[in-house]
Design a protein that fits this description.
- By secondary structure, the chain is α+β, with helices and mostly antiparallel strands.
- 46% of the residues lie in helices and 12% in strands.
- It has a domain at 137-238: Iron/manganese superoxide dismutase, C-terminal domain (minor pseudopilin epsh fold, 3-Layer(bab) Sandwich), CATH 3.55.40.
- Strand 3 and strand 4 form a beta hairpin.
- The longest helix has 32 residues, at 65-96.
- The radius of gyration is 18 Å and the shape is globular.
- The two termini are 35 Å apart.
- Bound molecules: fe (ii) ion.
- Residues 71, 75, 119, 204, 206, 208-209 line the site of fe (ii) ion (FE2).
- Fe (ii) ion (FE2) is lined by residues 71, 75, 119, 204, 206, 208-209.
C-alpha cells in the first residue's frame, strides 16, 4: 500500500469503517473518503468497483453478509463492467462512424452508470449500528426546514423507498436549483430522476438487496436500513453546496 492508499485507508479506519476484508481495488482510494471519486480510476480512464468500506457482516442484523457479498461482488461489479464496455463500444462507434447501436449503448451508459453511482453511494451511506451518528448541524437544519422534522423526513423516506414500483431506489437529494432536499422514487437505476438532484442518501430496493433475508417484506428491510444510515457521510455529501 503506497502513501496515498494509506491516507485513504487511514481515513476510513479513523471512522471505524475500514474493512479487514476489503475485496478489491484498495489502490483506488487515492481520493480518500469521497465515494464517487473512488468509483473511477482517472489514470486508467476506467470506472472501478470500490471496496466495501466495512466487512461483509458489518451491517448485520439489518443486512446479512451473504446479501452484501453477492450484491457488491456480483451485482455492482456487473454494472461497472457493463458501463466500461458501453463506453468502449461508443469509442468504437465514433471511430467507425457507425451509430446503428446508439440507442442501446446510450441506454447502457444511463442504466449502468446510474447503477454504479448509486451503489457506490449506497455502500458509503451505511455504517454498522451505532457508528453512523445522527443528523446534526447543517443537515439537521435542512431536514427541519424542508420536512418539518426528522420524524417527517424518516416517515416520508421509508414510505417512498418501500413503495417504489418494481426495482429501484429511495433517494433523498439536494435540488441544485432551490438547494432544498427532495425525496424521490427512482426506478431501475436511472428512471424517474430529476435533473440537478444530487443524491445524498440512497436505499437500494431491488430484490437483490434484501430478498435472501426479508423475502417479500421490503418494508421491514427499509426500516432496518434506517438503523444503519451513516449520517456523517450524508452530511458530507451536502458539503459546501448548501
Ligand atoms: Fe443493488
Amino acid at each position: 500500500m503506497n502513501r496515498r492508499e494509506m491516507m485513504g485507508a487511514t481515513g476510513l479506519a479513523a471512522m471505524g469503517l475500514m474493512s479487514t476484508a476489503a475485496p478489491t481495488a484498495m489502490g483506488q482510494m487515492q481520493h480518500g473518503y469521497d465515494p464517487l471519486a473512488i468509483g473511477y480510476d482517472a489514470k486508467a480512464g476506467k470506472y472501478v468497483l470500490p471496496p466495501l468500506p466495512y466487512d461483509y457482516n458489518a451491517l448485520e442484523p439489518a443486512i446479512d453478509a451473504q446479501t452484501m457479498q453477492i450484491h457488491h461482488d456480483k451485482h455492482h461489479a456487473g454494472y461497472v463492467r457493463k458501463l466500461n464496455a458501453a463506453i468502449d463500444a461508443l469509442e468504437k462507434a465514433r471511430a467507425d462512424g457507425d451509430y446503428s447501436d446508439i440507442k442501446s449503448l446510450s441506454r447502457a451508459v444511463s442504466f449502468n452508470g446510474g447503477g454504479h453511482t448509486l451503489h457506490t453511494l449506497f455502500w458509503h451511506n451505511m455504517a454498522p449500528v451505532g457508528k453512523g451518528g445522527v443528523p446534526s448541524g447543517k443537515l439537521l437544519e435542512m431536514i427541519n426546514r424542508d420536512f418539518g422534522s426528522v420524524t417527517n423526513f424518516k416517515n416520508q423516506f421509508i414510505a417512498a423507498a418501500s413503495g417504489v414500483e418494481g426495482s429501484g431506489w429511495g433517494i433523498c437529494g439536494m435540488d441544485m436549483l432551490s438547494k432544498r432536499l427532495l425525496i424521490i422514487q427512482g426506478e431501475n437505476q436511472q428512471k424517474l430522476s430529476t435533473w440537478g438532484l444530487m443524491p445524498i442518501l440512497v436505499c437500494d430496493v431491488w430484490e437483490h438487496a434484501y430478498y435472501l433475508k426479508y423475502q417479500n417484506k421490503r418494508g421491514d428491510y427499509v426500516k432496518a436500513f434506517w438503523d444503519v444510515i451513516n449520517w456523517h457521510e450524508v452530511a458530507k455529501r451536502i458539503g459546501t453546496h448548501a
